Amino acid sequence: MEPGKVYLVGAGPGDPGLFTLKGRDCMARAGVIIYDYLAAPALLALAAPDAECIYVGKKGGDHTLSQEGINQLIVDKARTGRTVVRLKGGDPFIFGRGGEEAEVLKAEGIPFEIVPGVTAGIAASAYAGIPLTHRKMTATLAFVTGHEDPTKEDSRIDWEALSRGIGTLVFYMGVKNLPLITKQLLKYGRNPETPVALIRWGSTSQQQTVTGTLATIEEEVRRVGLKAPAIIVVGEVVELRSTLAWFEKERPLLGRRILVTRAREQASDLIAQLTQLGAHCIEMPTIRVVPPEDMSDMDAAIDRLGEYDWLVFTSVNGVKYFFKRLFDRGLDVRALHRVKTACIGPVTAERLLDYGIRCDILPENYRAESVVDAFRKEKMSGVRVLLPRAAEARSVLPDSLREMGAHMDEVTAYVTLPVKDQAEELIALLEKEGADMVTFTSSSTVKNFRSLIPDEHFGNLIQKLKVASIGPITSDTARELGFHVDTEALEYTIPGLVQAICGTAD
Question: What are the residue boundaries of the Tetrapyrrole biosynthesis uroporphyrinogen III synthase domain, all occurrences included (predicted)?
Fold first, then answer.
């Protein structure tokens, strides 16, 4: 069997948005992905559903596999004939041992390609507002390993040349050796007042920057308690941070750890908006949305579409699953040519417009009661209304329209099911790493989140967890189940929820 091709792919510094287009294409084609500790977890979502993902990370001296073991693993997986992606934090050829892996592949006769990534030294510095070169300050730059012991006799680092001949120095993996690095630079003539910055988790929501001088930086790092992984930048360019810092200053939610409980297929908008504002989002879907097992009521309604005067959608899912079934039965939007439509919420209306239909009623407030008020302006006696929506939804809307004289047909378009397999993961998260806030976008997310936490541990686990709710119905459910609601969206939409969360930022 011919071996598969191996791609040594740079995962970038941590921000998934800095991943390359070629890297994304390689991930989609790969049958095997061998990834590091510093590779952003979000990148694994780019893998094919059937891809084999193998973690070989190294964290704080704890090596899952030795480098020799990793080399052999890459070779073995390639010999199965599958395409292999070796996903490495930063750039494969900058302190990533990608050169060693490539040498092994060459010796074994296995085809390979190198896909560069944005290296941490460049990205972390840029996100901290530090240009590594500047026409008025320096035209020389060096990347240096901080992992080597600067005092060993056979050191390959020319400390005298670095100290006196290079304007900007960027040390990788050097937090542990910071005292030795500063000692060597001072020993060989670097000015004690030279500015220094340490940037931890650069380009991510956990970014933390500590600045000082060669004379003071050790004490500053001790005082703050900064730990690895971090990049060390030494040089006059660090002074520009006071003017150019942008990432940490313009993100009100920077460093906040927020649990997102929405169904995974719907969570992307909320996660994207919170991440853009600096939050570290932890996906913890408590529900999944599926079509009902019995579609007979939906099918019967679709067969009688010509009899209805109104079609009402209360959610994006209602739109999605109604039209999917409509199309599955060989029909299209022309079947609705005489039917008027009403929607709850602008996002639902936008999704309906994706199918070429502009809704006739869109109330200002995004709840069932507002739709009822809007229908009071219509003649409803004897009018036939179709309401495709979730099973076990609130009865306010259909009951009110019936009171107005409408003939209501409620059909189940989709079902929300609880996600039960994340209880242990959630409890471990709340006990150890913790989270600052949980978001609830529906009553079902509240109920299912609550069901994952044992009663005897509930109070302790949520004691410091703030709750953000999308609206009053969801908030009422949360309070009934023992949560304290800290913030509620004024506009019952995802942007409204994000705005409310930003209002809680210190």
Answer: 269-499
Integer Cα distance of 22 and 276 in angstroms: 23
Residues with catalytic annotation? 36, 58, 173
What letter would DSSP give residue 206? T
171 has which bridge partners?
Answer: 144, 232
Interval 448-464: pLDDT, tens: 999 888 888 888 888 88
Nearest-angstrom CA–CA distance, 373 and 406: 14
Q: Quote the pLDDT of residue 353.
A: 95
The whole-angstrom separation of Cα 414 and Cα 400 is 22
Q: What would the mean pLDDT of 339-345 be, rounded to a whole number?
A: 90
Whether 331 and 302 have beta carbons less than 8 Å apart is answered as: yes
Query: What are the helix (H) ranges across 94-210?
Result: 98-107, 120-127, 159-165, 178-187
17 and 112 part of one domain: yes
Number of other CB atoms surrounding residue 388 within 10 Å = 27
Residue with tokens 């541990």: 457
List helix spans (H) across 166-260. 178-187, 217-224, 241-244
- Euclidean distance between CA atoms 148 and 163, whole angstroms: 16
Identify the H or E element spanning 496.
helix 494-502
What CATH number corresponds to the domain at position 34? 3.40.1010.10
Q: Are residues 102 and 138 in the same domain?
A: no
Helix (H, G, I), strand (E, B) or coil at 470: coil
3-state secondary structure of 196: strand
User: Dihedrals φ, ψ of 146, to 5°?
Assistant: -95, 0
pTM of the model as a whole: 0.74
